[in-house]
Write a structure and sequence with these properties.
The chain is of the alpha+beta class and 463 residues long. It has four domains: 164 residues, Beta Polymerase, domain 2; 86 residues, Hydrophobic Seed Protein (Orthogonal Bundle); 142 residues, cca-adding enzyme, domain 2 (Orthogonal Bundle), CATH 1.10.3090; 57 residues, no CATH class. It has 22 helices and ten strands. The strands form two sheets. The chain has an eight-stranded mixed β-sheet with strand order 1-8-7-2-3-6-5-4, sandwiched between helices. Strands 9-10 form a two-stranded parallel sheet. A hairpin with a 5-residue loop joins strand 5 and strand 6. Helix 13 crosses helix 18 and helix 21 packs across helix 22. The chain is elongated and about 100 Å long. The structure holds adenosine-5'-triphosphate (ATP). The site of adenosine-5'-triphosphate has 11 residues, from helix 8.
Length: 463
C-alpha cells in the first residue's frame, strides 16, 4: 500500500501566495466538476527540493479541456486547446506577492486511462489513471504528483520512488526500456544530472550505453535531436552537459565531427566569457545560445561535413544557408581584420599603438556581423592588439553618434540627396577615429567638407 505524505503545511508556508491561491482554486474547481486534479512533474520535484518553480503542469482525471475552460474563466486567462490530446494552455497576467505583474502559463493535460482500458488489463485500483500518467514520464524524480482536491489537498502521490531518489540525488528511469522507447531521454537524463547536480545510477548508465550501442541515437528525428541540443545550450552549465554527452558517445553518434577536443573546450569557455561580458553590457538579448555552441563543435570541420550535419538535424535550406554563410563570414573576417591590423599597427602609421587609428575602417569591416558572429570572431582571435581593437569597437566606437544632422548640412548649402549621407559618414568616421570630439568640431569639419563638395560640383558644372 502506498504511503502518502501530506505537504499542505509546506505549501502554505513556502509557496508564494499567488501560487498557493491558484492551487487551492484548481482543487475547488476539480471538486465542483467531479475531477481529480494534480500538479505533476518538475514543479513537484522542485517543491520537494525547495527550488522555486513557476511552471505549473496540471493533470486532470476527467476532462482537461472542460477543466481548463472553468479555470481559465476564473483567472481571466487566454486558452489554447489541443482537442485531440485533451490538453490546453492557459496564459494570464498575475500580480506576484511583491506586486510585480508577470505572465503565467499553466499546462493542463488529461490523464488518459482509456488507452489502457481493455478489459482486464488493469485492476481498477485507486489513482490508476494518474499512476499510469506518471508511468509514462521520463525519470522517477519527475514522476510525482501533488493532489489538489480539497479533502486530499497536499497529498504527494509517489509510486516510483521520486522522494527516495531526490533524497539520494539519483537520476533513473521508471522502467528499463525507457531509453529505447524514447532515446531523447538520454539527453534529458544528462541535462538533469548536470542541472540538479545529481548522479545517474549505475544501472541507468548501463541502460544508456546499451541503448546507444543499439543505435538508438541514430533513430531520433533531426528536429528532436536539435531540440535536445537547444535545451542543453540554454542550461547554466552547457559545457558539462556536452562533456557528459561526449563520454556516452552521443555527440559522435549524432555526427562524427561533433566530439569535443581540447581546442573546442577552450573555445567554448572563451565564447561563454565574451558572451557573458556582452550581456552584462547590453542586457540579455534574444540571441539563441545554440549558434555559438554549434559553431564551436564544428571547429575544424569541412564545409561538406557541416552541411551533412545540418541535414541530419533537418535544418531548413534557409537555416542551413544562414549557418554555413556565418562560418564563411567569420573566416573571411579573419583575413580582413589581419589586413587592417597590419596597416593600423604598422610602425610608421602608428608609433604609439593608438588603437583609434583608423578605427572607422575596422568599424566598416565589422559592421555587417551579427552579435554572435562578432563574439565568435573575438573568441577565435589570438592577437591581443586585434582583440583589444574589436572590443573597443563593440564597447565604444559602435556607440558613437553625431550631434549634427542632415539639416545642419542643408543649412550650409547642400541640397537634399545621397551626398548628405556621404558627408555625415565622413564626419562620423572622424569622430570614431578620435580626430574630432564635440559638436563645434563636427560643424567645423562638416563645413569644410561641404565647402569642398560645393566647389567640386560647380567646377564639374562649368566643364
Ligand atoms: P523544467 O524545469 O526544465 O521545466 P520539467 O521537468 O518541467 O523541467 P519539461 O521539459 O517541462 O520538464 O517536461 C515536463 C514533464 O514532462 C517532465 O517533468 C517529464 O516528466 C515529462 N517529460 C518531458 N519529456 C519527456 C520525455 N521525453 N519522456 C517522458 N516524459 C517526459
Amino acid at each position: 500500500k502506498l504511503k502518502i505524505r501530506n505537504v499542505s503545511g509546506i505549501l502554505k508556508d513556502k509557496l508564494p501566495k499567488y501560487i498557493f491561491k491558484l492551487l487551492k482554486l484548481a482543487g475547488e474547481l476539480g471538486d465542483e466538476l467531479g475531477f481529480s486534479v494534480y500538479v505533476v512533474g518538475g514543479f513537484v520535484r522542485d517543491l520537494l527540493m525547495a527550488i522555486p518553480n513557476h511552471d505549473i503542469d496540471l493533470c486532470v482525471e476527467g476532462n482537461g479541456i472542460v477543466f481548463a475552460h472553468a479555470l481559465g474563466k476564473r483567472l481571466n486567462a487566454s486558452i489554447t486547446e489541443h482537442i485531440k490530446f485533451k490538453t490546453a494552455i492557459l496564459e494570464y497576467t498575475v500580480e506576484t506577492d511583491s506586486g510585480e505583474k508577470i505572465l503565467m502559463k499553466i499546462d493542463i493535460a488529461t490523464s488518459r486511462l482509456e488507452y489502457y482500458e481493455s478489459p482486464g488489463a488493469l485492476p481498477n485500483v485507486e489513482h490508476s489513471s494518474i499512476r499510469l500518467d506518471l508511468y509514462r514520464r521520463d525519470f522517477t524524480i519527475n514522476a510525482v504528483a501533488l493532489e489538489l482536491n480539497q479533502t486530499n489537498f497536499g497529498n504527494i502521490l509517489d509510486f516510483y520512488g521520486a522522494q527516495r531518489d531526490i533524497k539520494n540525488k539519483i537520476i533513473q528511469p521508471i522502467h528499463s526500456l525507457s531509453f529505447i522507447e524514447d532515446p531523447t531521454r538520454i539527453i534529458r537524463a544528462i541535462l538533469f544530472e548536470v542541472r540538479l547536480n545529481f548522479k545517474l545510477s549505475l544501472q541507468t548508465e548501463r541502460l544508456i550505453n546499451n541503448a546507444i550501442q543499439l543505435g538508438m541515437i541514430k533513430k531520433i528525428s533531426g528536429q528532436r535531436i536539435f531540440h535536445g541540443f537547444q535545451l542543453v545550450c540554454e542550461e547554466e552549465n552547457t559545457l558539462a552537459c556536452l562533456k557528459r554527452m561526449d563520454e556516452f558517445k552521443v555527440l559522435q553518434e549524432i555526427h562524427p565531427i561533433l566530439p569535443l577536443t581540447d581546442a573546442k573546450e577552450e573555445l567554448i569557455l572563451e565564447l561563454e566569457k565574451i558572451s557573458n561580458a556582452y550581456e552584462m553590457l547590453y542586457q540579455k538579448s534574444k540571441r539563441e545560445n545554440w549558434v555559438l555552441y554549434l559553431l564551436a563543435l564544428c571547429l575544424g570541420a569541412k564545409y561538406l561535413e557541416v552541411s551533412e550535419l545540418l541535414k541530419r538535424l533537418m535544418f531548413s535550406s534557409k537555416a542551413t544557408h544562414s549557418f554555413l554563410s556565418m562560418r564563411e563570414q567569420c573566416r573571411d573576417m579573419k583575413f580582413k581584420i589581419k589586413a587592417w591590423s597590419e596597416m593600423a599597427f604598422s610602425p610608421q602609421n602608428n608609433k604609439d599603438k593608438n588603437i583609434r587609428y583608423k578605427m572607422s575602417m575596422l568599424a566598416d569591416i565589422l559592421n555587417p556581423l551579427s552579435v554572435n558572429a562578432m563574439i565568435f570572431v573575438i573568441a577565435t582571435e589570438k592577437d591581443a592588439d586585434i582583440r583589444k581593437a574589436i572590443l573597443y569597437y563593440i564597447t565604444k566606437a559602435r556607440e558613437e553618434k553625431l550631434s549634427i544632422t542632415g539639416k545642419s548640412l542643408i543649412k550650409m548649402g547642400m541640397s537634399p540627396g545621397v551626398e548628405i549621407k556621404t558627408v555625415l559618414k565622413q564626419v562620423l568616421d572622424a569622430k570614431i577615429d578620435g580626430l574630432i570630439k564635440d559638436k563645434q568640431e563636427e560643424l567645423n569639419l562638416a563645413e569644410s567638407l561641404v565647402k569642398n563638395f560645393l566647389e567640386e560640383k560647380s567646377k564639374n558644372n562649368k566643364n
